[in-house]
Every structure is written in structure tokens, then in C-alpha cells.
Write a structure and sequence with these properties.
This is Carrier domain-containing protein. It comes from Flexivirga endophytica. It holds the Pfam family PP-binding. InterPro entries: ACP-like_sf, PP-bd_ACP. With 84 residues, the chain is mostly helical. The protein is globular. The chain is built from 5 helices and no strands. It is 56% helix and 0% strand. The protein has one domain: Orthogonal Bundle (Non-ribosomal Peptide Synthetase Peptidyl Carrier Protein, Chain A), CATH 1.10.1200. The termini are close together.
Length: 84
């Protein structure tokens, strides 16, 4: 099983935001609270990633609390994906 690329996850993140009339900025250092990306949005993104990978991801709540930027989300999803 192969993982999803950061670009693919970024595209999915953009789709979650677009459904709310929001746009994902190009800068990965953009803060999530500045673009209105909430925990519910993260949950939707995680479900989409799980569907794509056909596996359940194991979330660690303490680590999730440290996610503050677009890049943090991408890094977090990278770490959650199963290795080949």
C-alpha cells in the first residue's frame, strides 16, 4: 500500500475549504485559524485520506493539538500514513 503525496493531501485540503467558499493559500506556513480551517474540517480531511488509503488512521490527540499551519497538517498526515 502506498501513501498519498503531500500535493494530493493538499488538493484534498483545498477541496474541503472550497466546499465552504474558502481558498487554500499557497504558503504552507499560513495559520489554520487565519483561513478558517477548523477541527471539523480536519476530521473531514482525515476521512477523505482514510478513504483514499482504504485504511483507518491512528490519531494521537496531543500531537493533533500542535497542528497550527497548513504545513503542520501535511506533516501530520504524512506521519499517520502507513508505510509500504
Amino acid at each position: 500500500m502506498s501513501g498519498l503525496s503531500r500535493d494530493h493531501v493538499r488538493t484534498m485540503m483545498g477541496e474541503v475549504l472550497a466546499a465552504q467558499g474558502k481558498q487554500l493559500p499557497a504558503d504552507d506556513s499560513t495559520r489554520l485559524d487565519g483561513i478558517g480551517f477548523r477541527s471539523l474540517d480536519f476530521s473531514e480531511l482525515a476521512l477523505r485520506v482514510e478513504d483514499e488509503l482504504d485504511t483507518e488512521l491512528n490519531f494521537d490527540a496531543p500531537e493533533l493539538r500542535s497542528v497550527e499551519t497548513v504545513g503542520d497538517v501535511l506533516d501530520f498526515i504524512d506521519q499517520l500514513q502507513p508505510t509500504a
